[in-house]
Amino acid sequence: MPRIRDIAKACKSKNAGPFELTLDVVFDERRMYERVRATGVLGPALFARLYGVRPEDVLFTEYPAGNAFKATIPRLVPSGDIGDTDVYGAQQHAPLLDVDIPL
Amino acid sequence: MSQVQEYRQLSTSGLLGYGFPEASLEAGMARRPHMIGVDGGSTDPGPYYLGSGKCVNSRIAMKRDLRLMLLAARSERIPLIIGSCGGAGGEPHLQVVAELVREIAREDAQHFRLALIHSEQDKNWVKRELAAGRVKALRNVKPLDDATIDRATRIVGMMGPEPFQRALDEGADVVLAGRSSDPAPWAGCATRAGLPPAPAWYAGKMLECGATAALPKGHDCLLTSVSDAGVVLEAMNPIRFCTPFSVANHSLHENATPCHHIEPGGLLDTSDCVFEAVNDRAVRVSGMTWKKQPYTVKLEGAELAGYRAITICGTRDPMLVGIIDEFLVSVRENVAVKASAFGVTPEQYRLVIRTYGANGVMAGWEPVAKTQSHELGFVVEVVAGSQETANAVLAIARVQMLHVDFPGRLCKEGNMAFPYSPSDIETAPAYRFSVFHTVAIDDPCAPFPIEYETI
After folding, report:
1. Interface test mutation site (partner B, options A81, A87, A88, A91, max chain B beta carbons within 10 A)
2. By the 8 A CB rule, do A27 and A68 touch?
3. Would you put residue B394 in left (φ > 0), alpha (ψ -120 to 50) or beta?
4. pTM for this model (two decimals)
């Protein structure tokens, strides 16, 4: 079974403002995007489980124009506040890389 | 201003001071843009810059970019426009960039009309707006209160396109603005030239990041042409290509959704965008819509979180690596006892120990429970109400990291390798974002006074 790291063109995280983190999984062509979408794996429940937030706190968007899925979640610690580990939010994507996609 | 069929805008990079190849600027100027600009800022580097008044990029790097842009703009008599000057766009940040522009003008004998648009907000005004029920918290932010407003070292408002339009209407050649919505300067220029708001805002969203919408990514120049038919994007460096894929994906960058972009005065909806290759280097985007909404301005504020000192160390001891969590608990307990002995209780400081090699990057989100690393690195940090207290508690923490005993310890000379002497480092004061709210306003220019200067 392929993992996201085997089939995605991009898998990334970044701040969406100081209080939220946004995660993107991008495919390089529509057919793969549609096949992944059909599995139903990429959705609010996945991000909620991987990042320990409530599914209703995941703002999830399917973005066919970019062959992409986007999830925005609240940060545990706001960017740059005491205890934050990642001011830019640029290194929080790793748990997604090993998610199996049953294609 | 006369109407044009096509409005061309040249952005030199994603941030003033990031640098760009001069050849890209020349290629861009050869396309006869109607204006040239660059975004100056972001909240992305964290709260320190807004809180402290310091610029995120160096004076030297900003001056290099500014000189090239100013000379290019003046030679063609087109406006030069920079939003969110100096990073956070507060008054000290705006003044640093203004001073650089004056310096360059003196050195290169340039003469023009300069507009400075201020964005720092009076705390009493923010309190009045709060009391009037016109302030709302953004998602995942607590409601605002007077005490939070009082604690902020600085509050800026994020201006829309209207103050830029006013500055140009009033004859400015060079416009330097405080905190601005990133696309606003660009959208303001294109709509002022008579182009529709939807493609104008879309172009702004691309231009504010320079050539980031092209592949390969890099700090470089982007030219956009806005017309009734949409926006055409093209990177000015021949090594970079805008493709339908690269441009569509740029809509994902640093925002909560790729489809709905809330801006001062409206919503840019990119759900139905169509991306077509014009040739192998340029892309046309069409199908975006703009829906007018009640006018709101975002407020950003930062407050002092305390004074910080850190030390960096590492262990190569396999027994210590194996029981690191328990070890760090004893370090904390020992620090509490020792610090209390000189009168500093645990409520008076925050001790943060980051363990690189285990969970230093992801902390609470790290799914790997047991590290496989043969060595671990630590950044030990204390934040307290004064630098003296932070330094004192950090010194104790450093000693505990070095000397606290643990089961199976064979090397009693010291648990940690410290790379530096002095090992303890005072960092700058720590800030946090405390205001991240919107305020409803009637006049988009009112919170943003403009000052003119003949150079």
Report:
1. A81
2. yes
3. alpha
4. 0.94
Contact B47 A70 (CB under 8 A): no
Rounded to an integer, the average pLDDT of B233-238 is 97
| Secondary-structure percent of chain B, ordered helix, strand, coil, rounded to 5 | 35, 30, 40
Q: What is the DSSP string of A27-90?
A: -SSHHHHHHHHHHT-SSHHHHHHHHT--GGG-EEEEEGGGTEEEEEEE-SS-TTSTT-S-TT-T
What's the rounded Cα separation, in Å, for the pair B200 and B188?
8
Q: Smallest CA–CA separation between A103 and chain B, in Å?
A: 23
Q: Return the residue matching tokens 């307290």.
A: B384
- Nearest in space to B436 (alpha carbons), one of B320, B333, B305, B302: B302
Using a CB-CB distance cutoff of 8 angstroms, which residues of chain B are in contact with residue A94?
A: 362
Question: Between A59, A76, A79, which is nearest B46 by CB?
Answer: A79
User: Residue B140, by phi and psi: left (phi above 0), alpha (psi -120 to 50) or beta?
Assistant: left
Dist CA B86 CA B98 (whole Å): 10
Q: What average pLDDT is seen over chain B?
A: 96
Whole-angstrom distance, CA of residue B57 vs CA of residue B60? 8
B251 band by pLDDT with thresholds 50, 70 and 90: confident
Joined together, the tokens standing for residue B245 give 């894929």
pLDDT at B1 over 70: no
The amino acid that residue B225 corresponds to is S
For residues A71 and A69, give the distance between their C-alpha atoms in angstroms, rounded to a whole number: 7
CB atoms within 10 A of CB B122: 10
Rounded alpha-carbon distances, angstroms, from residue B178 to B42, B52, B118, B275, B410: 11, 15, 5, 33, 58
